[in-house]
Specification:
The chain has 289 residues and is an alpha/beta fold. The chain is built from twelve helices and 14 strands. The protein has helices at 13-24, 48-54, 80-86, 100-108, 120-141, 158-169, 181-189, 200-203, 221-224, 245-250, 261-265, 267-288, and strands at residues 6-9, 29-32, 44-45, 57-59, 65-66, 70-71, 92-95, 112-115, 150-154, 173-177, 193-195, 209-212, 232-235, 254-257. A six-stranded parallel β-sheet has the order 3-2-1-4-7-8, with helices on both faces. Helix 1 links the parallel strand 1 (6-9) and strand 2 (29-32). Helix 5 (120-141) runs antiparallel to helix 12 (267-288). The mean pLDDT is 93.
């Protein structure tokens, strides 16, 4: 394993768990700009140059970049140009939501970019944690049970599928709103009601909890005006989201943008998933070489 030396640059509590697991398994680890360290074992806390010189596998946050140009660090931001200046030929750079422009810069200096989120196993497991966190959020914020509530889920991707299953098993009445007829058919076969977006304005009138998973502005003022005031709205879509939070507030609605739930609601489990994903992607790449 000594041919695998890791650098962890930034990251949330999930990455604290990754550092801990790497150290437990005997890998050399260099840590840079990580502010949420718990048990980091024998990891070496150092500067960027030292870490990039020593490591052949570099782990960046999820998402890797902030505002498209800076590494997503809590402090002492590093530009992508500075970072890429330290990338060595043959070095593997992991990150979340890597832009094609950033990947190209890494390739130009001989590095090999890999996005955690291209791993289907990880995205499915993260969807499970996100769905669980969304249900937990609704239970904490509302004064009524999930059982017997009318839940409307916008979108039937990974998160929508798992979330609808959880809510259904908890005794909620579940309606899925999906653009594709095939998704609506699958939802009906699973025992849920299903509608097309053209019926959304009518369906929101009776919803007790509304979950959005689609990263497009769907719940704007023209739709939110029909939502009952006691409805709780959870926007799970990545930025810019799919719920107009200002319009929701203007209508007296309670709406929250619940981003990065895996790292907030179950960081240890999410860290374990991330750790296994990194090792799996390294193994897959070595087999392809």
């Amino acid at each position: 394993m000594n041919d695998r030396v890791f650098a962890v640059i930034g990251g949330d509590i999930r990455f604290s768990r990754v550092i801990e697991r790497l150290c437990q398994d005997g890998y050399p680890v260099y840590v840079v700009a990580h502010s949420c360290c718990g048990n980091i074992g024998n990891a070496v806390v150092c500067d960027l140059q030292t870490a990039m010189t020593a490591a052949n596998f570099v782990l960046l946050p999820i998402p890797a970049l902030r505002e498209g140009q800076m590494l997503n660090l809590s402090e002492n931001p590093i530009s992508e140009e500075v970072f890429c200046g330290y990338v060595r030929k043959g070095q593997t750079i992991f990150g979340g939501k890597l832009s094609e422009n950033f990947c190209e810069k890494i390739r130009e200096v001989g590095g090999y970019p890999l996005d955690y989120l291209t791993n289907e196993s990880m995205t499915v497991q993260n969807a499970m944690i996100t769905a669980e966190g969304a249900v937990s959020l609704a239970m904490q914020q509302r004064k009524e049970t999930i059982f017997g509530s009318r839940c409307l889920i916008m979108g039937y991707g990974r998160i929508g599928k798992i979330l609808s299953r959880y809510l259904h098993f908890m005794g909620a009445s579940v309606t899925v709103c999906a653009r594709k007829e095939s998704d609506r058919t699958w939802a009906k076969l699973c025992g849920y009601d299903a509608i097309s977006p053209s019926l959304l304005s009518e369906e929101v009138r009776s919803a007790d909890i509304l979950f959005n998973t689609v990263p497009y502005m769907i719940f704007d003022a023209s739709v939110l005006q029909f939502v009952q005031r006691r409805c709780f709205i959870v926007d799970l879509a990545s930025k810019p989201g799919g719920v107009d939070l200002k319009a929701a507030a203007d209508y007296g609605l309670t709406a929250v943008q619940a981003l990065s739930l895996p790292g907030k609601t179950a960081p240890i489990s999410a860290g374990d998933i991330l750790y296994q994903t990194v090792l799996s992607m390294i193994s897959e790449r070595s087999q392809q070489s």
